[in-house]
Amino acid sequence: MQLSEITKYLEELAPLAYAEDFDNVGLLVGHSNDITGILVCHDALEEVIDEAIDKKCNLIVCFHPILFSGLKKITGKNYVERAVLKAIKNDIAIYAIHTALDNHQKGVNKIFSDALKLRNTKILIPKQNFIQKLITYTQPDNAEKLRNALFEAGAGNIGNYEDCSFNSSGIGTYMGNENSNPEYGDRFEFVESQEIKIEVIFEKHLQKNILKALFTHHVYEEVAYEVYNIENAHQNIGLGMIGELDQPMKEHDFLNYVKEKMECGGIRHSAFLNKEIKKVAVLGGSGSFAIKNAISAGADAFLTADLKYHQFYEAENKLLLADIGHFESERYTKNYIVDYLKEKITNFAIILSEVNTNPVKYF
């Protein structure tokens, strides 16, 4: 398969536009070449590059980007440079998925929630500044065709609903000059006609597709349209997730349950509050920034990683705050990616890495 074919599937799984601004996702190393096998891992370390060579895989799909900040030199002096050098030398492409999958409704935090069997889950921190609105005007006999084209391009999705739009009637006016070629009326004729105003929302990274559909399926020579950024949070894209256990658990029992399900080497936690745990917030990876969000959402416990000493105070005796380990909180993500790719690409080598790249050890 061509690399471009596979990256298309990966971007369907986790659109790059979903990633946080600070992140570095997508194709990090490589170019358009034939792919003979895919190795999926958590971190594309040098040992993983060796594994890819041994298993004849020339594409590595990793969760964490091995290239996170810029490199001014590639001399092999550190683990990042050594991995990149070896990948380039052996013509191995590297694709990172990271926060593009963190922010997906069925991504990292849904995987985390499912491992704990949480139900009634929803996004903890919905993504802001990600929705745009298109407003356009057309003739009544063009309205249905145009709407359907916009829906097909990705417009009109709101939560659990699709093909959403608002339509209103009004009177449009225009007069063409000597260079015009109006669909309705003649040059230099002042035209008053019944028009339909169509309003739809869409995710901002789809704007190019939306406008292409608009211009392709609109009947007017000159298309009147407006695009706005709107402040509504996107309820199905964002960081973290919150859900409920089937049955409440005592705090000690809950942490034992988490330790077993997430295969934790240890759990650091805030003081027990002597209350049952029912509502649980999770955020895979470094999630200290979401403590207040978990409290505001009414969580009894918040599971995340990389908490510092003073951040445990932020629990404020309002919830149980637990650091289960960075790798542990994301441990099932690579399995999810493998399953997805095997469903999309049959009769092709897609291999789950056997290298444990967790840098944290427990004594």
UniProtKB/TrEMBL annotation:
Upper lineage: Bacteria, Pseudomonadati, Bacteroidota, Flavobacteriia, Flavobacteriales
Quaternary structure and interacting proteins, as annotated: Homohexamer.
Binding site for a divalent metal cation 1: 102, 326, 330
GO cellular component, one term: cytoplasm
Keywords assigned: Metal-binding
Name by which UniProt lists this protein: GTP cyclohydrolase 1 type 2 homolog
KW Protein biosynthesis (keyword) present: no
Any one Gene Ontology molecular-function term assigned to this protein's record: metal ion binding
Cited PANTHER family: GTP CYCLOHYDROLASE 1 TYPE 2 HOMOLOG, NGG1 INTERACTING FACTOR 3
Binding site for a divalent metal cation 2: 64
Organism: Flavobacterium urocaniciphilum
SUPFAM superfamilies: NIF3 (NGG1p interacting factor 3)-like
Family the entry assigns: Belongs to the GTP cyclohydrolase I type 2/NIF3 family.
The keyword Metal-binding belongs to this UniProt entry's keyword annotation: yes
